[in-house]
Amino acid sequence: MTKKIKKLLIANRGEIAVRVMNAAREMDITTVAIYSDADTKALHVLRADEAVHLGAAEPAESYLNIEKVIAAAKETGCDAVHPGYGFLSENAAFARACRAAGLIFVGPSAEAMEKVGDKLIARTTMLNAGIPLTPGVEIDEMPLAEIEAAAEEMGYPVMVKAAAGGGGKGMRLVNDTASLGPAIEAGRREAMSAFGSDTVYMEKFIEKPRHIEVQILADQHGNTIHLFERECSIQRRHQKIIEETPSVALDDDLRRKIGETACEVMRAVNYYNAGTVEFLLDANKDFYFLEVNARIQVEHPITEMVTGVDLIKHQIRIATGEKLTLSQDEIRQHGHAIECRIYAEDAANNFLPSIGMLHHISEPAGPGIRCDSGVYSGVEVTLHYDPILSKLIVWAENRDEAIRKMDQALAEYVVLGVRTSLEFLRVVLNHDNFQSGDFDTGFIGQHLPDWQPKDEPELLNVALIAAAANRPKMQHASGDAGEAELPTPWQLIGDWKMLDG
Amino acid sequence: MATKKFQYQHSTYAVGFSEKQSSQFESHIDDEALNGSILRLPGNQQLLQLDGKQYRVTTVSHGDRIFVHVAGKTFELRRAERQGGAFSGTGDGDDVTGNLVETPMPGKILKLFVDVGQEVEKGNRLFIVEAMKMENEVKAPRGGVIKAVNFAAGDLVSLGEPVVELEP
Known about the structure:
Chain A is α+β, with helices and mostly antiparallel strands. In chain A, 34% of the residues lie in helices and 24% in strands.
């Protein structure tokens, strides 16, 4: 039984909220944004049909506040909620609360989410389903001495991971006994702060792994298909920064095998909606189940580019109870797509977040170039949320051309006001090992540790002359320098003077 | 020719610039003369011609900072002639006294490992600062004795604030 969605609340912010709104609008669905004090001028608010203010900038008072989000959806007469990624997207209590309030949750069932959301439960489920797993141990109740013994037995390096984790938070690589205790302590603290649970576990670290994940679409009628792989091995601080598809590490045989395994993973938990199954691929081309991301992912656009499938629209249709309109045989990979995540961060300084006013942004455009952005000139990047500004995606006929297209698009991308990863991303793309496909998740640490921008004396000269030629802008009274404002004729006339009778 | 001083990374440059007829300009950077042409375009853009090459440049200024983008590279410059002609260090260079240990990112002080009077060796953990749920551990840049601890766990700090002071 299907139920049409007429009005959709997007329980998120930034580029993903804008992306979902675009899909909804194309489906004749009215969109409702939510926002915090920090986001009154945010792009996702401007792009929505309606917007509801939730409260303070702290996520707990706004984007993470289940009661407020549900109340906003009910007040505005929404019949569905799209959670995006991050925030409440993998929160089973939120999925339940939506359903209890009579709202369609655009995502998997709360039950499936719980089965895959806790990494320990997921491991047990997958073990029973015969899915390949990395060796691992539960360490929650274990005294440190026992954990140390277990780590010795497994062999260093080991990984400490948050059971509720994702996105590298609460995750620590440990090379020796001395750093195990502090790593567990820090992992627990970070896990508690990020996920509200300090349960961590320990896993054998697969050396030189490549991160390969598979996009899934599954409906509520038992149909599960995959949309092939994405390779996300280029990471910093365990966070992906460049993703591509197809992966150069897979041949057709392995590609089919990993795709089928991903479908089995999702069937094992009766998963429906869009989701991703992540694997590690080792040097022997053996792959191991890592985790399920029970939501749309940041890097979903590259799959859309090579398959021609709009994942967000299918997500929405599946949520209404519609059957999948695509069969496995219809899904093909065509050409090559790459995504670069554009973060407000200082690549030359350990990728620390860079906050401040975005004084000027101009995004690249052209054939095969897609920019999913959540910002515009004149808004501020604050400390409250993930520092992603946008995602730049390119498509070309083959990998070499896609790399060249991305390199040019990054060079065209202007962001002034905060530091970004733009220049660093170009260095990665132009690296021999990246171009030849010879890399793993350790690429940045191995090839570009302590990266510093190259001196470019010629360009510095141009920049210095441009700075000397720059005429200071007329500034607003607030001191907020947005776009240049030319004086109006009225201002040029000067002060008005009242003429006496 | 009017000369302005700009700071880029750890160096200061004296840049002279004067516009002539029909978009031509004369300039010098320190002692090097550079002449070309400039066309001002909408959207903070300039088209600069120098040595037979053409550059599309985007420039915005804010306070004493000037951001310039050219050919895929972004430069963050500072006007150096403010504050009575002397440029005051900003904390990202070598001119930071060796006594101040600053926070490398704005955020919340999560944990302090040292107390006043405590002796530390280079590489000892001093404090952890957290932002966007990422922890960053700050270590002692050199050995010494803790002279002051300016914040407590839970305090919010801005970029570059000295959290711990060392002596001697």
